[in-house]
Amino acid sequence: MKLLFALLTGLVFGTGIALSGMMDPAKVLNFFDLAGSWDPSLAFVMSGALVAASVGYRLVWKRKAPLFEGRFQVPTGTQIDMKLVGGSALFGIGWGIAGFCPGAAIPALGTGRWEVALFLGAVILGFWLRRIVAPLHQPRAAA
User: Fold this and answer.
1) Around Cβ 9, how many Cβ atoms within 10 Å?
2) Of 30, 84, 100, 114, whose CB neighbour count within 10 A is largest?
């Protein structure tokens, strides 16, 4: 049942991305082109998502636990560090260059465009490289 609801949630998200036009990287890039062919539709999509998420969180936090888990898994970190800032900057730069974010690129795979596959391949490569590089920067325990 848990996987079925995960699938349904993904289908609703993908349908929303498709209907809003956010699978089209040109539409996203035009949002960032303030001096040229600016398209404010991304701001409307984000505003609608913010309203829906706000209502959803108000309803969900009234529950003791999620429907398919024993407890909520909420991040506990509150520190703004270089990993957070660097990751955010890298995400924003990639989004501004490619016109895709991973959430919109996954449903866009259905368009058959090679650029989408290339973008998601780069995202997966980045995840893989981070797994290799991150342990190199961990402080070593004193002997």
Assistant:
1) 10
2) 100
